[in-house]
Structures are given as C-alpha cells and as structure tokens.
Amino acid sequence: MTDAILQARGLSKTFAGFSAVSNIDLDVERGSIHALIGPNGAGKTTVFNLLTRFITPSAGSIVYDGTDITRAKPTDIANRGMVRSFQISAIFPHLSVLDNVRVALQRHLGLSYHFWRSNKVLDSTNERAMALLKEVGLAEFAGTTAVELAYGRKRALEIATTLALDPKLMLLDEPTQGMSAEDVGKVTALIRQVAADRTILMVEHNLKVVSTLADKITVLNRGEILAEGPYAQVSKDPAVMEAYMGSAEVAHG
Ligand SMILES: Nc1ncnc2c1ncn2[C@@H]1O[C@H](COP(=O)(O)OP(=O)(O)OP(=O)(O)O)[C@@H](O)[C@H]1O
User: Which terminus of the chain has fewer CB atoms gathered within 10 Å of its CB, N or C?
Assistant: First the structure.
C-alpha cells in the first residue's frame, strides 16, 4: 500500500490562456526523495509554486498529510510542516550563522520580536540552533558572519534554517545550482542525511545528483508528466531522451 504525504490530482495552471501545467497527478511517498526534472520551461517551478500555494491552481486538488490544502495559505502549509527551502531561508547576511538559525527557530515558535530579544529566550534556542548547525556540518562556523561563508556552506545554512521549522516535507529548489563539483558532493551527502527521517521533493537540474539521490523521478515536459519512476527506468525512456535532446540539461548530466 502506498503512503503519500503529498498528493496532487489534476493540477493545472493557465497563464493568460497559456497552459503552463496541465492535469498533473503527483504522489510523493512519505520518507522518500522525489525529484522533479525536465527541460527549461517544462513547468517545474510552476508545480512547486502550486504545491506551496504561492500561486493558485486553475484546476485540481492538493492533499498534504491527509488535509486538503488546495486553498490554504502558504504560511499555514509551512506551519503544518511542508517547508520550501527559501521560504524562511532568506539568510540575514550580516548576522552570524548561529543567529540566523536562532531567528528561524524563533519564527517557528511564533514568538514576537521583543520576546525574542530577551536573553532567556535566546539562550533556550541556543542549544537547538547548535544541534542544527552540527547536523549540517556548520558547528565550527557558528560565530562566522553569514555573508563570509563560502557558497556551498551558505546552502547548508539555508538547509539548517529550513530544518528549524521542523519540516516533515522539505521542498528544495535546485539545491546544487551554481556549485563546484566538490560542493555538489557535499550538499548531496547533506540532503541524503537530512532525508533520513523526512520526505524531500526537489527540483534539480543536475542529473547526477538526481540519479544518486532520488527514489522516484517525475519528468515534466511542456507542463505534462512525460515519465515517472526510478532513475534507471526514466533515463532509458525514449520519450525522456527525446525531450532532453539538445537541451541545456544534458550538459549538466
Ligand atoms: N507568471 C507567469 N506568467 C506567464 N507565463 C508563465 C508564468 N510563470 C511561468 N510561465 C510559463 O510557464 C512555463 C513553465 O515555466 P516554469 O518556470 O514553471 O518552468 P521550469 O520547468 O521551472 O523552467 P526552468 O527550468 O527554466 O526554471 C514557461 O513557458 C513559462 O514561460
């Protein structure tokens, strides 16, 4: 029996008559890493925006963890544990790495700014913030100003601030984009680690990352699902190969 934490049915989005996403059914299994791939303009970002309610579907329904969220507010969804990586991870560049995670924790707890400023409350989040930094391998950078972090470590900090919201389902938007091969390897390992007791849905252009991490891959093309399954299966699918032919992503692979 399947246990989908996220289920979309007949999801569609039309922009001024242009059908960006049409009639998509998606099942994200609890505890899995699920990747959304496809050539440029395939509709991946639109699907992410629909699932997280940044935009409203023209048709279809979305059920998250047993609740219909088709009309829910993005913040309600985040509070229920479906968190998109950049949603709270606008890193404050001039705060320390530790303070960035503490701010995220305080936001999760819904405490007011003034309350947050009390030393007692700050101390109480210290321990949890340090644990999160440890989890993403940034403990030794706790006192570093965020802006000074190398690029790969900034993404690790983003993941830590996302983890601060205690997500059940994390949506990662191209987590390895623009990274050196070394950083790609590190972030891949980090994603695998944080996925141990969570579900991950990711848009990712790097096919090597996808092939390493994803349990299931949904391939989008022109707003529709072209293929779905494990990497070994979809990568041999003639329709997928044709859709990728001549597209930039092949080079990334
Ligand atoms: N707000 C909008 N208004 C009009 N058209 C849009 C809007 N957002 C997206 N589109 C169109 O919908 C299609 C899908 O775009 P989307 O950004 O979801 O694709 P994508 O797969 O994320 O592409 P990329 O890999 O280039 O980021 C594109 O043709 C795009 O131009």
Answer: N
